[in-house]
Amino acid sequence: MDALYYNTHLHITTWVVGIILFLVVLALLKQSNEKAAKITHMILRLFYILIIVSGAILFFSNYIDTSGGTFAESIVKSLAGIWLVAAMEMILARVKKGQSSFAGWLQFALALILVLALGFGRLPLGILP
């Protein structure tokens, strides 16, 4: 197996763990378990860094060739991934403050659809031909 295979799986794994941790932090905040939520939130922020670093590795090792037809789509996917991380953080901050998080959830849904459609459907490392 080559490094591309491992980088791709690292990126997908960090995203899956990140979303699971996001849901755990949400549940802990809903239960008013502040200490556990704070610790888990800090671990989630570490995973945000891992997600961004693994995504940057994928981008620079695969899509930096400007002659390819997927360069613009990879830029959009990268920006949507950062947008998704920001939306997750916005939701957690608003829930912690007891404010409405509708705008965060809307952004989360839009960014997630965009990331999944580009990542798995359009770009070469996805599952669709």
Automatic annotation (TrEMBL):
Membrane-crossing segments per the record: 12-30, 42-63, 75-93, 105-125
Superkingdom: Bacteria
Query: Where can this protein be found?
Result: Cell membrane
By its UniProt entry, which InterPro entries does this protein fall under? UPF0344
Q: Is Transmembrane a UniProt keyword of this protein?
A: yes
- Identify its protein family: Belongs to the UPF0344 family.
Protein name (Swiss-Prot/TrEMBL): UPF0344 protein SAMN05216498_1905
* Source organism of this protein record: Tenuibacillus multivorans
Q: What are the record's GO terms for cellular component?
A: plasma membrane
Could you list this entry's UniProt keywords, alphabetically sorted.
Cell membrane, Membrane, Transmembrane, Transmembrane helix
Report how it sits in the membrane.
Multi-pass membrane protein
